[in-house]
Design a protein that fits this description.
Blueprint (H helix, E strand, L loop, with lengths): L2 H18 L18 E4 L3 E2 L6 H14 L4 E2 L2 H10 L10 H11 L3 E11 L6 E10 L5 E10 L15 H12 L27 E3 L2 H4 L4 E4 L3 E2 L6 H16 L3 E2 L2 H11 L9 H11 L3 E11 L11 E10 L5 E10 L15 H13 L3
Parallel strand pairs: 1-3, 1-4, 2-4, 8-10, 8-11, 9-11
Antiparallel strand pairs: 4-5, 5-6, 7-13, 11-12, 12-13
Helix pairs in contact: 2-5, 7-10, 8-9
């Protein structure tokens, strides 16, 4: 089901509940709030930016951005107490059981989870990168996902004017971009057709099984990538961005990272890199997926470290495994640099890491 149809379904059921005064919405099963808007629980974003102060910029912007679209929000202090009482240490990876507890206690229909992937308070040219997803609490499925990132220099215009030099201002722009395709409460987004597979720009480095055309997996999960770079947290960022990219492509049902995390707790370990057939069969029986994607981040340069290029670059190596047979259904390697989209001078150049990562992932996913 596409991004648009999933969110349209969730919102449509809620509207029915409001019109007829039904106590529970058919899809998400929550009571209508006193304000009449679908209620969202905003979970604390994972901070892998490397800067502890990053959430103080982003978190206060999320609630007003959603309220402006007509949504009701679970009171943050009450949500903090909920997480503390249940000793939830990974609020961006809630299980379905934990989501249902949110619904029962707060009447929430949707849960917003995300990650602050980049914050650089560079003098005169700050940078931000964030990703997020909405989950339907009744089913646990992802109904919307996106990512956004900017540098202050992205807004530089003619004669060098327009550059955003304050991180607070750039944070506002980044959150606005993040939610640009999230419809207002009660508004159904345009249905999004699945992106067809094709050779893509990564075709030189891709193997694709004919089975993806005759018997493709319906539900897939992204397993934690290995980090082969010096950037701490690079693999966590890529895991989230790949989940967003796969969801936006619309060709597969994507298991939420929360359910993947729950599955690893059941296994008692995280299967990085190679996975044997026995482990795949356990995954098949307990995760409810047809295929998993594993891989390695080979390069993740945000252009911020001394001694490296000031231009962002990324390189990913990934493969899709059938959980029934262990067969490789797809594998690919892809690199992307800021200069790849440059037209003339610096026009067209992707200067921020998260948009560059999303572009690389979209090109890689297009070959699946």
């Amino acid at each position: 089901m596409s991004n648009g149809s999933r969110l349209a379904s969730a919102i449509g059921h809620k509207l029915c509940a409001l019109v007829f005064g039904v106590g529970l919405a058919l899809l998400v099963g929550v009571a209508s709030t006193s304000e009449g808007g679908m209620r969202i629980a905003i979970l604390p974003f994972q901070n892998v930016s490397g800067h502890v102060q990053a959430p103080t910029f982003i978190t206060p912007l999320l609630e007003p951005a959603l309220r402006d679209r007509g949504y009701d929000i679970v009171e943050p202090k009450a949500l903090e107490s909920f997480l503390a009482q249940r000793r939830i240490r990974a609020p961006n990876k809630l299980s379905l059981e934990q989501l249902l507890a949110l619904r029962d206690q707060f009447g929430a229909a949707l849960a917003l989870m995300g990650s602050i992937d980049l914050f650089a308070d560079t003098a005169g040219n700050p940078q931000w990168g964030i990703s997020a997803r909405l989950r339907d609490i009744g089913s646990g499925q992802i109904v919307w996902a996106d990512a956004a990132g900017f540098t202050g220099d992205d807004f530089t215009g003619f004669l060098g004017l327009g550059t955003i030099t304050f991180p607070e201002q750039l944070a506002v722009k980044t959150v606005q971009r993040l939610f640009r395709n999230l419809p207002a409460e009660g508004m159904a987004p345009d249905a999004k057709r699945p992106v067809p597979s094709g050779p893509g720009k990564a075709s030189r480095w891709v193997f694709r099984s004919p089975r993806l055309d005759t018997d493709p997996p319906k539900r897939i999960a992204v397993f934690p990538f290995e980090n082969g770079t010096e950037r701490r947290g690079a693999a966590l960022i890529v895991d989230d961005l790949l989940t967003v990219g796969l969801f936006q492509a619309g060709r597969f049902q994507v298991e939420d990272p929360g359910e993947v995390y729950r599955g690893f707790q059941f296994l008692g370990f995280v299967p990085y890199g190679g996975i044997d057939l026995e482990t795949l069969q356990v995954i098949r029986d307990n995760f409810g997926v047809d295929a998993v994607i594993v891989g390695r981040v080979e390069d993740y340069n945000e252009g911020l470290r001394p001694g490296v290029s000031a231009s962002p670059s990324i390189a990913l190596d990934a493969r899709m495994l059938d959980v029934r047979t262990g067969e490789i259904l797809w594998m690919g390697y892809h690199e992307a640099r800021a200069e790849d989209s440059q037209i003339v001078l610096e026009f067209g150049m992707i200067k921020s890491m998260v948009p560059l990562g999303m572009k690389a992932i979209a090109e890689l996913v297009a070959t699946m």
